[in-house]
Amino acid sequence: MRFTVQREAFLRPLRAVAGVVERKQSQLTPILLNVLIRIQGSHFFLTTTDQEVELVAKGNLGVSVDKEWTVTAPVRKLMDICKALPEGEALTVLQEQDRITIRAGRSRFTLSTLPAGEFPSLNEEIGKFKFSITERHLKSLIEQTCFAMAEQDVRYYLNGMLLEVKNDHIYGVAADGHRLAFGKIALLSQETNTARAIVPRKGILELQRILSESEAMVEIILGENHIRAITSEVQLTSKLLDGRFPDYERIILKDGDKVLTGRRDVLKEAFQRAAALFSDKFRGVRLRITNGCLKILATNTEQDEVEEDIEIDYVGNDLEIGFNVKYLIDFLNVIQTEDIKFIFSDSNSSARIEGVGAQNCTYVIMPMRI
Question: Quick one: 129-248 is in which CATH superfamily?
């Protein structure tokens, strides 16, 4: 069996699906290092998976093939070959027993394959709850919240993001026990049903990667155990995490009577200068807040010190509170308004951070003892 395809037409979908493949899987399940190539009519389909997340990309051959067939090949080697070939080259792929031969111009490559029948699949009925949103809006929602996801936390439900649909909005929430990021986007169509799912970290990051900044629609299908996102070029399927996500509404609606307002760019640059003092995981800074002034204080393990005064809008009792400066910078990197506000109760309680005039994102950070 053989097919011919233009290099660019094959490389683009191959790039789209290659990210889910991890080299460490080779010792456990070698076939997970392969891409499943399926030829059907005038189209080809490329599938990769780590058995938690599956990506399927579609491409056009330009001509129709009479017989449907499948083959697997090492995805990294295949992508390296395609990237190394000159633009405009045509690839001819020939399958012979347990090997494939790739011809392009005067180049010839032979790669070993594994049986296509052994390739695992998440291609099953996911569920009936569906909604659509623009790729740009969903990508923005993920970017504004995903950085707060935990990594390898024993509370496994924190190693991902909560996606919830209710009140004609989709909500994205991520938390790692020290901070929480919340965002919401209005849906174009009124959705009366409600649904929620905790998507694992890898599924969220792969979804963020395949989404574009365009107004094209992405269809989301939520089931009990899986989520599926379908764009015009790629289909992503991910298993879901079990567990009960923290009550984010109770956390973000907690009242505070002390409000600090300042310029986002000024505060971000000041925190970045303070962060330059640290090279280890301990990155605690003290914020000393008085009427009209924020003093940033930090000392590292070598007893180096930084002190900086920032003009702010604050009227109230003096307050001193400590935070992880990296978390503060992460928040300020995604807030898009010119001014931001911190809402406090006292030096021992969490702080809420919001963009002034923005209603779509809220961030909560726990204090540190310094």
Answer: DNA Polymerase III, subunit A, domain 2 (3.10.150.10)
